[in-house]
Amino acid sequence: MIKVCVCVCVCVCVCKMVVYRFLGVGGPVLVTGLIPRFSARFYNNLTNNNNNNNNNKLKNKNPVRSVSGLRDATHTLSTHTHSGSVCVAEREVRVRFAPSPTGFLHLGGLRTALYNFLFAKQHGGTFILRLEDTDQSRIVHGAAQDIEHTLEWAGIPPDESASRGGVYGPYVQSERLSLYSAAAASLIESGHAYYCFCTNHRLELLKKEALHRGQTPRYDNRCRHLHADQVQENLAQGKPHAIRFGLHAEAEPFEDLVFGWTGHAVGEVEGDPVILKNDGFPTYHLANVVDDAHMHVSHVLRGAEWLTSTCKHLQLYRALRTTPPTYAHLPLLLNPDGTKLSKRQGDIYISHFRQQGALPEALLDLITNCGSGFNSNRIGRNLNELISEFNVSKIVTHSAVLDLRKLPEFNRVHLQQRIEDGLQCRLLVDEVKNLLTLTYNDLIQERDVLDHNYILRVLHMRKRHISSVKDLVSPVYSYLWLRPSVSWQQLEEMSSESHDIIAHVMLVIKGRNGEYTPEFLTAELKLIAKTLKKTKYSSVMKILRLALTGQQQGPSVGEIMVSLGEDEVCCRLQRILEA
Ligand SMILES: *[C@@H]1O[C@H](CO)[C@@H](O)[C@H](O)[C@H]1NC(C)=O
Hints:
This protein is of the alpha/beta class. It has helices spanning 35-46, 51-59, 107-122, 143-153, 177-189, 200-212, 228-236, 266-269, 284-294, 310-320, 350-355, 360-370, 383-389, 407-419, 422-439, 452-462, 488-494, 498-509, 518-530, 537-549, 557-564, 566-578; strands spanning 6-14, 17-25, 79-82, 85-88, 94-97, 126-129, 193-196, 242-245, 254-256, 260-262, 274-276, 299-303, 326-330, 333-334, 400-401. Among the domains are: 175-330, Rossmann fold; 350-412, Glutamyl-trna Synthetase, Domain 2 (Glutamyl-tRNA Synthetase, domain 2, Orthogonal Bundle), CATH 1.10.1160; 421-475; 488-578, Arc Repressor Mutant, subunit A (Orthogonal Bundle), CATH 1.10.10. The strands form seven sheets. A three-stranded antiparallel sheet has the order 7-8-11. It has a two-stranded antiparallel sheet with strand order 1-2. Helix 1 packs antiparallel against helix 2 and helix 5 crosses helix 9 (284-294). The radius of gyration is 34 Å and the shape is elongated. 34% of the residues are buried. Mean pLDDT is 84; it is low at 1-85. Residues 443-576 form the Aminoacyl-tRNA synthetase class I anticodon-binding domain. Keywords: Aminoacyl-tRNA synthetase, ATP-binding, Ligase, Nucleotide-binding, Protein biosynthesis. It is an enzyme of class 6 (ligase).
């Protein structure tokens, strides 16, 4: 058996010029172009059953037989870290978010989509949405639509997707089966993959035996060693089969943009993985490699749970003679108690937050704030600021704690920004109007409260205090839309001077258009309190608050009076005097 050498590739990136050095360990120094042939030879040695083919391959001067649609190997990586910063070379940036439609979009998925979106937009690249629906039994009805609609709602829509189209479609894996079977066939032909005829029964037995011995179950690669004649006979008999990829034992390190140099001797710890199932559907490993290559994906930003699989994927890229993307594995998202933010918890679905009145920009801000990837963190960043401030070199490997208790605060800050933006605020006014109609409907007697300028004023007065426009239709704010019923007796009980106070206030505020501000009103109310013998300033406030709102708590009396407006305040006070 030929001694096999491990290649360590040291990449140096100097202003778009990529220089490669391959260090042969225990073997001759190899140049880039030899890599495909080198690995083919390696496999033919592993599968020591087809020596004739083997010789042909070694003589073949032009072994590049790329699968249709897949690029030939050029072995140029596009991104390398150099003195801590990421240098994106000439390759066009194309990234993808590739969820399985096995559930609605949740926070973890939104985080992955967002980081891909930010990276794409920062580099003038393309953001692709691809649905990985090869596990047909787990598909959830409506999930595919929910994922795309939610990305649109969040303001991070894909550039290419099933509904938007694009040149590398279809964007749904179940519609791309011919690409995977072609890739699997080419891998069989080049000796990198083989037919596996093992029955489920045998695989179960292997598993049981391993567990019995206290070992991790793994396939024993038995069919890798089947004789070619046996394979032909089994195929001729129509025996059910899967296609497995022959892993090689060496750890080929790769440079992850987040985790740095990483390598796993995956072939030593795992059995050969199935790449194409008996039903013609690919497994994740083959499908994501074939699609990323076919869709010219330049960078893969995905969850750290895929880090160990990446070595497998790189072996597949090499076997398919295509250029792998650059990987950046994102750290896990955790709950404050340290548990994994799993999609099994119902309350992390984006639709849930949406129903609660969460603003998309607040969710995005919270997600990025709890994690890394920015030179500094601050609350209140909008999407454009996230794009310009994102720095992939700043993503750290340790898990991010997502504290959802902070969401109301993030929402408040972003709601204030919307209120201060004329166009956005107009939409908020309409939203409040709809909410009012839904909540109070016939109860609203004064149609003036549905007036645009009235709602606008309320929004501006409350913008530092509410975290959702829905707050405005909660009982504490009902006084803004409905006249309270307050009895004269209630006010008398608070002070025998109540009548004087109310009459005095009405005198002061009538016809004060220009000066009608919370500050002016507070100052005037203080003056009134000074003239009273039996009632303190704080009690004056309590009386007025009760008279105007029917409540004992709420915003300052000055603010309440401004929100309601002079006419409405006079009307409410007059009603009490006449009661
Ligand atoms: C991104 O982060 C790296 C590593 O900390 C730093 O060297 C680089 O200057 C940052 N880039 C920008 C644009 O801030």
